[in-house]
Description:
Structural class: mainly alpha
Number of helices: 4
Order of helices and strands: HEEHHH
Radius of gyration: 13 Å
Number of strands: 2
Strand content: 5-15%
Low-confidence stretches: 1-20
Amino acid sequence: MIRSIVLAASAIVLAAAAPASAAEMRVKLAGKSAAEVRAEIVKAASTVCWQDIRGEALAGYLYPACIRASVNDAVSKINNPALTAYNAANPSSGAVVAR
């Protein structure tokens, strides 16, 4: 279960891996387990990354890397030990989510 400090937060901002990207999404955390929070982050990262790289010649290669970088960045910003441990134990599970 996500610790109370994270439960108190109602949302986080998830930015795309590319620093120049303006795309972002909010992911609600309240009342969710580490697995649920990570799944929501992966889903949001999938959407943001696809919007950011679609049309690129190497999109097939960039997309998974963008998702991984975005998820890892969001998890580190939340700074929750349970979520960090879950993310480390499941580095690529659900890395590509259908849009």
